[in-house]
Structure formats: structure tokens, C-alpha cells
Amino acid sequence: MKVALIQTRTPATPQAALDHVLPLVREAVAGGARFIATPEGTNVLQRDRDQLLPLLRSLEDDIVVAGLRRAASEAGAWLLIGSALVLREDGKAANRSALVGPDGAIVATYDKLHMFDVDLPTGETARESATYEPGERAVTAPAGDLKVGMSVCYDLRFPALYRALALAGAEVMTIPAAFTRPTGAAHWEVLMRARAIETGSFVLAPAQGGRHEDGRGTYGHSIAVAPWGEVLGQLDHDEPGVLFAELDLAAPGKARAAIPALANARAFTLPERLAP
Question: What is the pLDDT of residues 197-231, one digit of tens each?
């Protein structure tokens, strides 16, 4: 199956974000992709909480989500909205990934589990938990012939999630992201390849890239990895663009048969915690 990963530099308002991403989606459709994935924060990127929150709508009312649903329906293709920053039913904010079917219907959603709360050596600080309510469940979903395990960005650093998704039948791990530049340069490719190898799965990671209107810098380098760990394709820049990749749908089964780590794992007693 031919897939496409969309790399964006999402603006700080939803209408501008829609105008930015739609031409890239149309390029992916024109290139023959039957499964298309966009990055984290496809509908808006704004670090200032006071400016962001008034822009947020429910998933059903967000104009970028609506526009992408129409695009999927017009193309008859599967489309993963890597994440949209939206209002939950309880009025809190969520970082929500949405899988859209070829008819434009939303068939699965996943709220980012792990919040990026860090103080980086560069002096940058992130407190996602100050804005977003974390999800509570892992999600798998069929997308035509693909068996998808959904995740978002910082989830990448928690391998137990991907093992659980693989054990539940997922063969394609989607990891849309807005990675910082320092962590991207150090860890992006190696962690993506590790998650693929550990689970015998494809990894599809569309990314944000470049210097954004709100001042943040993101790494780009969208990447597709095969279940044996080889890189199927990677953008070598942080500019907006489209990465195409061909998936051999028999590859996960072959990788898992050759290295049956999912089947061979055993329960064990945890060690005692060492004194600090």
C-alpha cells in the first residue's frame, strides 16, 4: 500500500492552518497515497495558553478537521489527523488524534496519554499538562488493510504502550509529532526505529518542522520505518512537504515470526528499589 506523511509548519490560527495543510494533502492524493497522515497539532500551534484556548473547538466543530474530512471523502482515502487540539466534552482541552475513513467519517480517536512536562538543557520549558487533559486508553483501529495503533509524539518514549498496541493486533504504529529540535536531532530516528524493531511493526511519523509563528522550533524529518527497522523514507529537512512510502503488508508477520519477542516475553518480579 502506498502511504503519505504530511510535514507541516502549522500556523497559529485554524483558518491559516487549513489553508496550509490542504494543498499538501491534495499532493499526497495526486501521488496515489491510499493512507495519509498529518502531524501533531495539525489544526493550530500556539504556545501561549491564553491565545490558544479561545481558538479551540470540539472535534466535530473544528474547521480544520471538517476540511480534512471533506478532503478524505473527495479522495476516497484514509486520513489520519495526527492530532487536533480540541475542547473535550467536559470543557477541558485535549490533544486528539482522529482516524478518518474514505467516506469522511471519524472512525477512531485517541487522546495523547503522556504529557510533555520538561525543562530542557537549552532553557526551554514545556508543561503540556497545564493545558491538556491526558487520555486514559490505548487505541487500535482498522484502516482498510492496515491495522493501526494510535499514539502522539511524546508517547514515543514509552515502549510499553507500543507493546500493548502490538499485542492487540496493531501492525502500523502512527506517531505524529512536533518534536523539539534538540531532542529531534538526538533521538528522533533511533527511537522510531527502536519502536518498529521491538514490535515488528511499521512506524509512520509525520512531523511539524521549522520556526513557527509562536516562536517554537520543530525538527521535521518525517520518517517511515519498516518492521525490520530499515528506514523506508525520511525527509532530510524541516520544510513543509510530502513523504511517500510503500508498505509491504506481509512484513509485520515475517518480522514477528523471525524475532518472536512479543510471544516470548515472560512476567517477572520487579526488583527492589535502590536507595538514592
Answer: 999 999 999 999 999 999 999 999 999 999 999 99
- Say whether 50 sits in a helix, a strand or coil: helix
The helix (run of H) or strand (run of E) holding residue 147 is: strand 146-150
Topology classification of domain 2-261: Nitrilase/N-carbamoyl-D-aminoacid amidohydrolase (3.60.110)
Question: 268 is written with which cell numbers?
Answer: 517477572
Asked whether the whole model's pTM tops 0.85, one would answer yes
Q: Please enumerate in sequence order all residues whose Cβ is within 8 A of that of 225, keeping only pairs 6 or more positions apart, or say none.
A: 192, 193, 195, 196, 202, 203, 205, 231, 232
* Active-site position among 2, 112, 171, 198: 112
Annotated active-site residue in 92, 153, 198, 254: 153
Q: Which residues contact 196 (CB under 8 A, 6 or more apart)?
A: 173, 202, 203, 225, 226, 227, 228, 229
